[in-house]
Automatic annotation (TrEMBL):
<dbReference type="Pfam" id="PF03466">
    <property type="entry name" value="LysR_substrate"/>
</dbReference>
<dbReference type="InterPro" id="IPR005119">
    <property type="entry name" value="LysR_subst-bd"/>
</dbReference>
<keyword id="KW-0805">Transcription regulation</keyword>
<dbReference type="InterPro" id="IPR036390">
    <property type="entry name" value="WH_DNA-bd_sf"/>
</dbReference>
<dbReference type="InterPro" id="IPR050176">
    <property type="entry name" value="LTTR"/>
</dbReference>
<protein>
    <submittedName>
        <fullName>LysR family transcriptional regulator</fullName>
    </submittedName>
</protein>
<keyword id="KW-0804">Transcription</keyword>
<dbReference type="Pfam" id="PF00126">
    <property type="entry name" value="HTH_1"/>
</dbReference>
<dbReference type="InterPro" id="IPR036388">
    <property type="entry name" value="WH-like_DNA-bd_sf"/>
</dbReference>
<comment type="similarity">
    <text>Belongs to the LysR transcriptional regulatory family.</text>
</comment>
<dbReference type="InterPro" id="IPR000847">
    <property type="entry name" value="LysR_HTH_N"/>
</dbReference>
<feature type="domain" description="HTH lysR-type">
    <location>
        <begin position="11"/>
        <end position="68"/>
    </location>
</feature>
<keyword id="KW-0238">DNA-binding</keyword>
Length: 294
């Protein structure tokens, strides 16, 4: 009996590449243009992929295609597999990419998820130096336009920010957070720790409270997440935070306390037109990292 009789089938990277292109464009025709194949050939690729997995991956509608639940799961795996393949191949057959990239990020992102993403990039591109500058989204856009940055992550919806700038790479709910075991959420008026005027998280949180008629006061104002977290840890206030930023000793406030849903915020990616090899490599990595569910 062969040792490989029960080995699962291998997923072909060409099929996964076409699958991701369809999922992101919502169209077999547009995906075919991206992977330089005919729509019929791409359709056959997806048929092979569905036969290999024994699952339907797309819901085909009149003007677009949507992922099935199984397709959503495969999309996450496909992006990771394609990125790992690119990293592995680049170590052997791709000329070494060298250079320096100036990257901007909001402070909350720069001290949270971003370091892990940049550490992974550094392992696959050791000759690229990435200089990170943290600031508000409006400041980062100004520095980008002044040529001080090559690219930046931005939060959408800040006061004074051009709404046409940036590609949406990540969307996430904002939630009400407090110290575990704290009582700040039970006080009236409700004490809040928020950033200064103009911050989209602050605006979304206050609008939600105003809409529901909940009395509140700004107990702590700080543009740095460390300051807001200090106020929360001391049980002086609660704060609106992205769901992925939750860490002990903080917890999401129980819905039974009647606080309104805040809504979702968007993370944008913007870059200057001419990036060069090092900048292009980082840009692809950043976009893929945030578009892949974590």
């Amino acid at each position: 009996m062969s040792l490989f009789a029960n080995t699962p089938p291998l997923l072909e990277f060409d099929l996964l590449r076409s699958f991701v292109a369809i999922a992101e464009s919502g169209s077999f025709t547009r995906a075919a243009e991206q992977v330089f194949r005919s729509p019929a050939a791409v359709s056959m690729q997806i048929k092979r992929l569905e036969e290999t997995l024994g699952k339907s991956l797309f819901l085909r509608e009149a003007r677009q295609v949507r992922l099935t639940a199984e397709g959503e799961v495969l999309l996450s795996y496909s992006r990771r597999l394609l990125r790992l393949n690119e990293e592995a191949v680049s170590q052997f057959v791709t000329p070494a990419i060298e250079g320096t990239v100036c990257f901007g990020s909001p402070e909350d992102i720069a001290t949270g998820v971003l370091p892990r993403v940049l550490a992974q990039f550094a392992r696959s591109h050791p000759a690229v130096a990435v200089n990170v500058i943290a600031g508000t989204s409006t400041e980062l856009l100004s520095r980008l336009d002044a040529g001080e940055l090559d690219m930046a992550l931005l939060t959408a919806g800040n006061v004074g920010q051009d709404p046409t700038r940036g590609e949406v790479v990540f969307t996430e709910p904002l939630i009400w957070a407090s110290r575990s075991g704290g009582v700040a959420a039970e006080k009236t008026p409700l004490p809040l720790a928020v950033a200064s005027r103009g911050c989209c998280w602050r605006t979304m949180a206050l609008e939600a409270l105003d809409k529901q008629g909940i009395d509140y006061r700004i107990a702590y104002t700080c543009d740095h997440s460390a300051g807001m977290q200090a106020a929360m840890e001391a049980d002086l206030a609660i704060a609106p935070l992205p769901q992925s930023h939750m860490r002990a000793p903080f917890v999401q406030i129980d819905a039974n306390l009647g606080l309104p849903e805040i809504g979702e915020y968007q993370l944008l990616f913007e870059h200057r037109k001419e990036l060069g090899p090092a900048g292009n490599a980082l840009a692809r990595y950043i976009v893929d990292a945030w578009k892949t569910p974590r």
